[in-house]
Amino acid sequence: VVPVPLDFDARYSALWKRYVYYVCSGSFYDQLPFVWTRYAWQVRETLDLAAMEEAARLLSSKEHNFGWMSVIQTGEMRNPHRKVKLTVEKVPMQIDSDDTPYLLRGKANTIYRITATCDFFLYKMMRRIVAILVAIGQRKSDIDALAMIMVQHDNDDADTTKIKIPNELSQTAPAKGLCLDHIEYNIP
Fold first, then answer.
1. CA-to-CA distance for 173 and 68, rounded, in angstroms?
2. CB 86 within 8 A of CB 59
3. What distance in Å separates the CA atoms of residue 136 and residue 138, rounded to the nearest whole number?
4. Strand locations in the chain (E)
5. Which of 17, 79, 85, 188 is the most buried (most CB within 10 A)?
6. Cβ atoms 88, 60 nearer than 8 A
7. What are φ and ψ of residue 30, in 5° steps?
8. Which of 93, 85, 89, 86 is nearest to 50 (CA)?
9. What's this model's pTM, rounded to 2 decimal places?
């Protein structure tokens, strides 16, 4: 615990934040360990990791308008153009051995960790990014559709209210897989 200036605000004084989101996929859906049923989004389909990594690179490539991937709250004054650093990786697991604690035992499913770092996140932005990555991993959408929508929204002269976003790319991931991992402040 350290003293802070009177004008310090836990939300608005942050230099950057990092969120982590866990997705569990696999055919052993009914035999997931308790921990993962409670703290990860479960999807039955096997996800295409390479496609998800490509989508993460596209979203991280430069500053983009993330307004369409969030719920803009009334009175929001911050610019929705953000530069986000995204990674998608498989989490190595050995969950079906005698040495494994009871709460972690189950059949081997694939756990994906999606990590995002940004100076600030718009409301529901991280959960919508995850839903887009999972839709692409499930092959319900593709990189070309995502790229086209991003180019349209990045164009400052475009009327974004007339841009049609496919249903697969406008979903919100459940909250239970999301974890605020780190907040960085400029406090000595």
1. 15
2. yes
3. 5
4. 14-25, 41-43, 64-65, 81-82, 85-91, 110-118, 178-185
5. 17
6. no
7. -80, -5
8. 89
9. 0.86
